[in-house]
Design goal:
Length: 68
C-alpha cells in the first residue's frame, strides 16, 4: 500500500510539526502519489495558513512515523 505523507510545521514555531496522510478513494500508485502531493499540500496550506509544508514523501508499506 502506498501512502502520501505530508509534514507541516507551524510558521510561529518550526519545532511543532504534524503529519497528514490524505485518504484516497482508490489505491495509489507511485506515479499518482507524486502527482497528487502538490495539490494536497496546497489545499491544506490554503485552509490552514498558520502551517507551512516542511516535507512530503510517498511511503510503501511503512508504519506511521513521527515527523523529523
Amino acid at each position: 500500500m502506498i501512502e502520501l505523507v505530508l509534514v507541516y510545521c507551524l510558521i510561529s514555531d518550526s519545532h511543532t510539526c504534524i503529519e497528514k496522510r490524505p485518504a484516497f478513494e482508490v489505491e495509489m500508485t507511485p506515479q499518482s502519489c507524486l502527482m497528487d502531493a502538490e495539490r494536497y499540500a496546497i489545499d491544506y496550506v490554503e485552509a490552514h495558513p498558520e502551517w507551512r509544508l516542511a516535507g512530503w514523501r510517498c511511503e510503501i508499506d511503512v508504519p506511521r512515523q513521527d515527523p523529523a
